[in-house]
Amino acid sequence: MNPYTPSSSGAQTTVLCCQCGVPITPNQVNMCAACLQASVDITEGIPKQGNLQFCGKCERYLQPPSQWILAHLESKELMGLCLKRLKGLQKVRLVDAGFVWTEPHSKRIKVKLTIQKEVMNGAIVQQVFIVEFTVLSQICDDCQRAEAKDYWRALVQVRQKAEHKKTFYYLEQLILKHNAHHNTVQIKQIHGGVDFYFAAQNEARKFVDFVISMVPCRYETSKRLISHDVHSNIYNYKFTYSVEIVPVCKDNVVCLPQKLSRMNGNFGPVCLCFRVTQMIHLIDPRTLNVLDLEATQYWRYPFVSLCQPKQLTEFLVMDAEIVADEDRPFSLGRESSRHVLGDAWVVRSSDIGGQQTHTRNHLGHLLKPGDLVLGFDLANANVNNKEFEELDSKRIPDVVLVRKVFGDLASRDAG
């Protein structure tokens, strides 16, 4: 008798399913896929529903036990958070996971999972199912403290000891532009400045560094002990940063100390502050020399303004001309390229028929006869300043012109 040899025609051997009798390819359990899935549920032990805690203030999700993480909808961070909330996934093999679209306002997040598991004599079963998560509203600890309005760990006190706080207003615009206040717990406006409250010391320190990088200032630090755990040697402090901005603002007439003036090539000493950024920018109206002072230099040799904006006098320009190069005084310092040296004969607007006063100024490119200009009348002013009183009268100008008066837009259009 010849031995049995399989047919070489390529026909595949089939058997009947032990449950429904459908011809199938032989496997370990001799059952079709439909009967195998009906008799074995590999998703048993995996919850089909769950809850996610969401803070609507900071838009973060709770990752147990106490960590709050930022995760956007349909992001990998949110997917990882959902999978960590499902118990029993470590007993199966996760093949695929994806989000099922839901309405954003439905407070529901659906995740579609595809898993595999070995059952019954080594047979591998694959199954797809959906897990639905309900988003529950819960305020995190940080937002709860912020809403209480009385919790803070660090305080930044920003002050400027000046009557007109132009530099402080400039700093406020920079804070809003760069969103440097987004970590504040509370902001209070008080006499002389603004207080910024923070929940962490590093956030307050970062804000102080921002202020120092924007305007010339100095700061001092202090701390107060709140509580102390003697067993674990843990101290709880509240920190306070006192930031003081230089009291010199734009359009201020100042008198430099004699030592500071000599250190910078006899600059000034009566000069005008035309800009304040990270440094104090000064200009000598009689020579157009400019000087940039850093905060450390200012606090080493401090000076104050000779006049306030309310003390500026309005003058009428009777005649104006630009100083020729051969008539300009010799100077060794750096000159301004944005200004032009000029001579002007001015008279008070309230006393047009009075005596005219000659002054050399830095507004030669702007002034012409008939213009109005604001200036400080040093000849008739009562200045209480030690450095100014020690100056020789020959070095003191009669009038220091500050800026030209352009008027409002309506009056300019009417003219």
In short:
The protein is α+β, with helices and mostly antiparallel strands and 415 residues long.
Structure report:
The protein is α+β, with helices and mostly antiparallel strands. Helix content is 18%, strand content 37%. The chain has 9 helices and 22 strands. Strands 5-4-3-8-7-6 form a 6-stranded mixed sheet, with helices on both faces. Strands 10-11-9-13-12 form a 5-stranded mixed sheet. A hairpin with an 8-residue loop joins strand 19 and strand 20. The longest helix has 14 residues. It is elongated, with a radius of gyration of 39 Å.
Helices, by number, come to 9
Estimate the mean pLDDT confidence: 86
Shape: elongated
Q: Strand count, sense and closure of the main sheet?
A: 6 strands, mixed
> What value does the Rg take, in angstroms?
39 Å
Distance between the termini: 126 Å
Query: How much β-strand is present in the residues?
Result: 35-45%
Number of strands: 22
Uncertain runs are 1-9
Strand-pairing-aware structural class: alpha+beta
* Assembly level: single chain
Strand order of the largest sheet: 5-4-3-8-7-6
Query: Level of helix content?
Result: 10-25%
